[in-house]
Amino acid sequence: MMSWLLLSLASLLSCAGQLCQKQATRPATPGHRGRHVGLWLGLALAALGAGMALWLLVLQRLPVGVAYPMLSLNFVWVTLAARFVWRERVTARHAVGVLLIIIGIVLLGSSL
Questions:
Q1: Rounded to whole angstroms, how far apart are CA atoms 38 and 35?
Q2: How far is CA 9 from CA 42, 73, 109, in A?
Q3: Nearest to residue 71, comparing CAs of 18, 25, 20, 1?
Q4: Lesser CB count within 10 Å: N end or C end of the chain?
Q5: Please, where are the H alpha helices in the chain?
Q6: Rounded to whole angstroms, how far apart are CA atoms 71 and 38?
Q7: pLDDT tens by residue, the chain, 112 residues
């Protein structure tokens, strides 16, 4: 159970790092661009670093053939964040792809 929690947290931290990178590219208020970029990239590095540290713990506990496909959850988290944070459009084809990823993760997870 702890391995799955660590895996989920590693995935969420990796996703958070990617989202912080995206936010660093967004417009800042005039005169604050450098601080804006620095803040978001610093948060990205912290989240990605913590995610990588947790990922190493996951690899000690789960076979890589099981753990690595579970990182596909990142596509799900990023898609949801893009839709709800930045109001990006999610096409039907993209939504079907996300659904297939979720089905794959359920199938892999239930085979253990």
A1: 5
A2: 19, 11, 16
A3: 18
A4: N
A5: 2-24, 33-61, 64-70, 73-84, 92-110
A6: 27
A7: 788 899 999 999 999 999 999 998 887 767 666 678 889 999 999 999 999 999 999 999 988 888 888 888 899 999 999 999 989 999 999 999 999 999 998 888 776 5
What CA–CA distance (Å, rounded) separates 69 from 86? 27
Cα of 5 vs its chain's centroid, Å: 14
Q: How far is CA 73 from CA 9, 15, 50, 103, in A?
A: 11, 9, 17, 11
Count the residues in the chain.
112
For the chain, the maximum distance between any two Cα atoms, rounded to a whole number of angstroms, is 54
